[in-house]
Amino acid sequence: MNNLAKRVSIIIPAYNIEDYIGNCLDSVIAQTMDKSDMEIIVVDDGSTDGTAAVIDEYAGKYEYIKAIHKKNEGVSAARNDGIAAASGDYIFFFDGDDFEEKETCAELTEIIERESADAVIYGYHRYADGAVYETNLPRFDRTVYEGDSIIKDVMPAFIGLSNEDVNNWIAGKPDSLYVENPALWRILCKRSIITENGLKFDTTLKVGEDTCFISEYLSCCSKVYVQQKCYYYLVTRSSSAIFRYEREPLSKLDGKKRLNDARERLVDRVKKRKGVDITDTFAGTIVMSVIEMAFLLSRKNPRVSRKDRYAGYKGFAEDPRVKKLIGRFEVGSGSFVKRMPFILLKKGCFGMLFTAATILHLIGYEFKR
Known about the structure:
By secondary structure, the protein is of the alpha/beta class.
């Protein structure tokens, strides 16, 4: 591949997706942007199927595709390796099992340069079985955000729920728990902001690494542009890491613990950089997660005893950082059914909450946001 600096670097981590990576690369190759302005960096994260061979086949055909093969260390490490290899002014982070509209790179790069922006946020489609089944445009009131409004209005939409959001849900207000999908494939970034601020993906996280990275990246921006158009197709597949994670309660519990650790580190970094404490922007997410884990872990699981499931849940709920946020949460007015779990949580009645959730499972009740 030509070693001269490029206008755009597209970083694609890939792990055991031999049936998908070709379609992803085809959509990138089809981009209307001049290929001399592009580099595609595909990071094979120690795949054990035919993914590596497919990547090498494409790299052999197209000089602007670079293949990196490494031992399996997870998607965060793969993306970090991609950043280290990138030379573009701008970076797209795409996933190897998805695909994009052909004008994605050209149009979004034109916008970020025309607007002198540090980031462009855009929409996406959810795609399965050959068809779009959901379209998601960004839900922001303005097109341009600058200065303090980025931390006040843009970053909170990605990082999580506030206590006010949770109480609005209890009160029955629609869309109270809406959070923008914090995936990196829906934001165009400047490489200089990433490198100058030493931004990296947290390799301790199995999930949630996007949330932390995009939140910190936005905290470094001076101007953000919101494009009300969908460019990306998120392909739903049952073998994806997030799909498996959502169905493995103890794995999800571990993921939430790690994410709490990562959020704490993020709070410290943003506070040092901007002098702002962002804890309140996601405090409701953590309080709500304690309720969710009570329902998730109380569900019968033949592979894990109830005793072990409760121990895991209680340990999560009694984490000092979690207990502090529970203490700061004031339960609002609204539906008794919605309020009761939070009342039990506030009183520290973790065993009672866990038992109540167990009984509700038996009568077919499902806790839903």
